[in-house]
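[09:14] KT: can someone run the structure on this one? pasting the chain below
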Amino acid sequence: MTIKRVLDWQRVRRIPAQFSWLDQRLVRDRHIERCDAPACALYLFLVTVADAQGLSYYADASIAKRLSMEPARVGQARADLVRLGLIAYESPLYQVLALDAPVSPAPVCEISPLRWRERTAELRTQLKAAR
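[09:31] RB: done, structure tokens below
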């Protein structure tokens, strides 16, 4: 089972003041003009299936089938959206990002969550043994 976690806390989506089903800044700030049709299709799909924090974890094969796209094209569209700063991706997790730029750089995580849990367990064991 995939555990969802926010990839970029500084760019969690929020409903903009000018509500519409999609953030109007996508057009107004010309983000959409930098995307080709497959990237736009993938972005629309991800916005539609994402939870309140912009997170989803569909497999490439599922996305490709739903969008009538080759899996390699899904990968290319994903890479384009990441490069444009519209999504974050760490397999298998997607995060649709807020369209406004982050205030400061996102913190760098130097240890994976799994390694963090392992290391924490190791330290607890050592602490118990020391008592």
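[09:33] KT: thanks! The longest strand covers residues 87-90.
[09:34] RB: yep, looked fine to me
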